[in-house]
Amino acid sequence: MRIGLMIEGQEGVTWDQWVALARTCEDHGIGALFRSDHYNGLMGDESRDATDAWALIAALAAVTSTVRLGTLVSPVTFRHPSVLAKMVATADHVSGGRVELGLGAGWNEREHEAYGFDFPDLGTRFELLEEQAAIIRAQFTEEVVSFAGDHYRLQELQPLPHPLQSPVPLIIGGSSGSRSAALAARVADEYNHVMASVDDLPERQARLDAACEQVGRDPATLARSQMTGCVVGHTQEQVLARVERVMAKAGAEGDPTSFVEQQTGRWVIGTVEEVRDQLGRLEELGVERIMLQHLVHEDLEMVALIGDELVSEGSGPAA
Question: How many domains does the chain have?
Answer without folding.
Answer: 1
